[in-house]
Design brief:
Layout: H1 7-10, E1 16-17, E2 20-21, H2 26-36, E3 37-44, E4 54-61, H3 68-78
Antiparallel strand pairs: 1-2, 3-4
């Protein structure tokens, strides 16, 4: 299979932050998130008398197995996060990261 670069990545201009070149631009991360990502906020009930709740924030991008390198570049650009394999059991779905 020939190496094809996704159109968002072809049009992404790497930026320099802190003296280090980032692999993808912020616009690229925004576009990928708009298409393949989501933000998840979980608020749990208060566990103390002051009424403080636990708030958990998560950010996900899910792509096909062959696009894993994109996630690695986004993780490197953001400087945080993990890329993991999500095994798909349904017959009509592809394996994802």
């Amino acid at each position: 299979m020939e190496n094809i670069t996704r159109s968002q990545l072809r049009h992404s201009t790497p930026i320099i932050l802190g003296g280090r070149t980032k692999p993808v631009s912020p616009d690229y991360v925004v576009g990928l998130t708009d298409d393949e990502g989501c933000f998840y906020v979980l608020v749990r009930p208060p566990y103390n008398k002051q009424g403080g709740a636990m708030v958990q924030l998560q950010f996900f991008i899910k792509v096909k197995e062959e696009d894993k390198s994109m996630l690695d570049k986004v993780r490197e650009t953001l400087g945080c996060g993990s890329v993991y394999f999500q095994k798909e059991q349904r017959k009509n779905h592809t394996q994802c990261y």
